[in-house]
């Protein structure tokens, strides 16, 4: 077949295949255009999951009538100057509108602040309609109908209406977090209305916008991040270790205000929380990376979802270091979800069983109550009934002490007595974890502060303390190594062998001694003593892969930390051991002084805090 020039419509449809994956992709492109135009209010309306209708209205600067034809032409944009390395807008290629118009029915109605009136242009399946006058306020309205009608084969790959609507909501929320000064509204016949009022471009406003998207409880369970290194600024919030999710969908990352799903950033977040979260749990994060546009390439993905940093090691190191430093500096904190779960468990009707009285509110219990014979109970015949004044005088003792004497079983031992101290020192009550008051079930320490009740899992807490001590001892000096009787020769691609040789000094600090052994091979002469007998070939290959991906050697460090965690689990205070009051208080003080002690090595919480106000609500005092 001879080489020929493709038609303009075919070119646009090919571009649409890369840029317009689903209705959510259209919404993303149109909302980014509105934000680049300086909009302070963006309204999105959809129908049929976005396949039938997508309408985006903004109050931005608008498009002049004479530029409407250029707006739907390929590679025409007002956002890019002559330097491709200086991209400061969300869009820059000039492909979105012509690509959408090639596979759908597209209309653009716009008016500038200086214009006498509005104008409208349309494009249907690549066929451009003439510009005509229209009525509109300042700003732009872009309407997309019958998406993919020109390429019906694409419709077979669309998911259901609910799934497409959910994807669109996620796109809007993800963009809205980066623009807290803009009001967003998402509505339509296929969804419930989502309204995100403007909160202002201040630290408080940004956190308020995050709370709108991620839930009101996130700010109470988040730690602020603010770090700078070599011209790269990192800000945002991360959740405390005891506040997690089952997936990474609530990890939001932005580079110069652009929402991205970058594997380097995701890997850095995972590495920063590796010590405090189990593998099946994920932190909740909102991170903003700001740097010179010249040292980051945003033109490496058709949908601009990925970026490439000139110095990926710098960015990864900044994220990991900043998060770990923030976690260490935040002290010990418990997630509010723990207290909420306890509150729910205590509420009437939440437990699978209750007292037999009909006041429980369950018909099954009421039936059992009546069947037990208590339904015919006569309070006037009860010896515990309140006596009237006449009977009181005849008995001679006002409250019938003799009748009540059978119920006098002597003084009950208090929790304080079981804890070995009658009154907690005032100073201890002011501490974060308060004063130990009791040990229950030989595993849980009950402590009291001035305004809360705290329950500590003694085994989980001590496990974290031992682990942190072992880890500090491990990393404060060179890791002891064992010499191999015969060096292990590992064959590798030449580039992997070269990378390992460049990192040989760092590897030696962790007890792994290796050197080049001819082309495409390394000789391993020492391994960390803690690893015992290990698969040297697999270890070296894993390290080579990690260096190629992230330019780090954390695989070896993680293996050593895992051994330290195992040792801590077996060397900590076991469940079932009785502790004296002094031992319990000492454990609480160590927890307060140890970073990350809010969770154990496996990611489980070490304590739960229930505020006094919550307890009073349970008893109807508030």
Task: Give your account of this protein's structure.
- This protein is α+β, with helices and mostly antiparallel strands and 622 residues long.
- It is built from 21 helices and 25 strands.
- Strands 1, 2, 3, 4, 5, 6, 7, 8 and 9 form a nine-stranded mixed sheet that branches.
- α16 (494-502) crosses α18 (536-550).
- The protein is globular, with a radius of gyration of 33 Å.
Task: Please describe the structure with a list of short key phrases separated by commas or semicolons.
622 residues, alpha+beta, nine-stranded mixed β-sheet, five-stranded mixed β-sheet, 21 helices, 36% helix, globular
Structural class: alpha+beta
Largest sheet: 9 strands, mixed
Number of strands: 25
Total DSSP helices? 21
Please give the alpha-carbon distance between the first and last residues. Answer: 82 Å
Which residues form runs of ≥5 with pLDDT under 50? Answer: 350-375, 389-401, 403-423
Helix fraction, binned, reads 25-40%
Q: What's the mean pLDDT score? A: 81
CA radius of gyration is 33 Å
- How would the global form be characterised? globular
Report the oligomer.
single chain
Share of β-strand residues: 15-25%
